[in-house]
Structure formats: structure tokens, C-alpha cells
Amino acid sequence: MKILYGVQATGNGHISRARAMGKYLAAAGVQTDYLFSGRPADQLFDMQQFGQYQVKRGLTFVTQAGKVNYWQTFWQASVRTLQQDIKALDLSSYDLVLTDFEPITAHAARLQHKRSIAFGHQYAFLHNIPMEHATPMTRLVFKHFAPAQYQLGLHWHHFNQPILPPIIDEEPHDVAQNEQQVLVYLPFEDQNQVVNMLKPLTEYQFSVYGPGLSKATLGHIHTHPLALKPFKTDLASCNYVLSNAGFELISEALQLKKRIMVKPLQGQMEQQSNALALQQLRLATRSDTLNSSIVANWLGSQSSQQFVHYPNVAKAICDWLLADTPTDVATLSKQLWQ
Predict the structure, then answer these.
(1) pTM exceeds cut of 0.85
(2) CB atoms within 10 A of CB 171
(3) What is the CATH number of domain 181-300?
């Protein structure tokens, strides 16, 4: 079998899922080519696993100071380039197209009548799940941005819907746990403001990752550029995670039983809905604003956060894809949530 796998590269979560899926596709002997869109090629990192991958412009949202800037999003979008890339993508040599909310591969598969399967957190919003600030426009985006013949939504709970648990790129880390260590990943915030916010909190050690940061030590604050292995090591060793409300990092943190606080990206319905779901499930603390006092109160609290454990969804999906007679999605969902 030969697969083209499209990955939305705006955030690192989609890429993390592709890392998990790619391992099992390769182990099964599947020839897989990758196409990433939504981020310039020079901003991608630690991509060796994906071989000779393609990078396209695609579509992405522009953020500034923790909020979506719809004006800049509109001006930086190139619908013409997107349409050209969709029409130019030749799928004749592929048996299947996979898409993790990547629009070029999804729409090319539809135009060329190629079998296609989509999976990702965004497809969970096609079901009746907790949502905040949902509008007819956001529902249209989730439905038509990257459609496929089969769509597998992922979430932290099934909400009595045919949704799958998260795909988690787990790697074994034999590292000591540091009860006072906090992993900080707030890529949509001003990184200087993040560092200044953490300066008074000298009782804790902060590992801060973000765009534009260099490797440096400022007393109890350790800043890092974006890099896969150091980030995974710090995630494994920390006790707390402070982040925006993206899906994949929170999924990995939940699996590792970390205490979590999220600050959802304002104006981004998906992140605000994620924060709402985390609140309802008692899986994390939510704050729509951040300052030193708010973070200090969270770190010092004894909140009764719930802990969960998810099955190996990446392997289950790969087995499902390659089965001679795959079950329906609802059955797959029930099997995994058991």
C-alpha cells in the first residue's frame, strides 16, 4: 500500500500525531509520503523521520499577543495558491490519502475521487461535544476545511459520540521526576512577558519553550528554542505544565499525569472549547488571563485534578486502516474507550 499523508503544520500537535502514526505505518511496511502545509519549511524542526517530504503554503491563522488576528489572517491567506496546489497535486500513484486537517491533500483527494480518511481533534467538533463560542462559521470551517470520506475525531472523552481517544506520541524516558519543575509552552504569547511573569516565582524551576527563544539560564528560569528531544525530556521530568489549550501537548501531559493549567488562545474557538472540556472533565485548571499571582496560586493549590490513561490509538488506527474488513468507526470507538 502507498499512502500520501497530509499534515497541518501550523501547530506542532498535528506533527506529533504524524510522528506516532508514521512509526506504525513504517512497521507495517506501508510506503508513506508526507505533505506539510501551514508553515514555512525553514520553521520546521526535527523532521528527519519523514524523509523527503513536501511543504506547501496552505492556510493558517495569524496570532499576536495570545489572540487570533483575523485581519492579518485574511491578508496573508493566498486562496489562489491554495487552489493551484490542490489542482497540481497528482494522486494517481497512491492507494489512500490520509489527512490530519490538511486542506491540500483533502481537497485533491475529493477532486480525484481518491479514497481518503481524515483524523484529528478538529473532526470531533462535527459531533455534539462541549463547545464555546461556536458559530455557524466555525462549524462550516470544521466541516469543509479538510474533508474526507471517513472522518475520525479525537478527544479526551467520548461524550457519548463515535469519537476516538487521543493519538499520543509516547517515548520512554528514564528521567527523575522534579516536583518543583514546570514546563511552560505558550507559543502564542509574547515570550518576554512570559519570562517576566515567572521571575517572582523563585520556588520553582521553569523550562520555557517558545518561538524566538535561545538556550539560556536566568536563575530559576531556563529558556529553550523549539526542539523535540529536550522538550520531551522536560515534559517527562516535570510536575506541572503551563500552556495554551492546544490538544496534543495536553493529551501527552494527561497521559503522563502532570498537573496542568491552560490559557486558551482568545478568538480561537477550538482552544476555548478545549479549555471548557478540560474544566468539565476536571482534567486541568483554566485561566483566560495570566499573571504572576494566578500562576503562583495554581502551583500552590491542591486542586483535585482527575487523571486518565489512554490506549495506543495510533496502532489501533493503523491496524484499522490495513484490515481486510475494517469495523465501522462507532465500533472502533467503543473498543478503544473500553
Answers:
(1) yes
(2) 15
(3) 3.40.50.2000
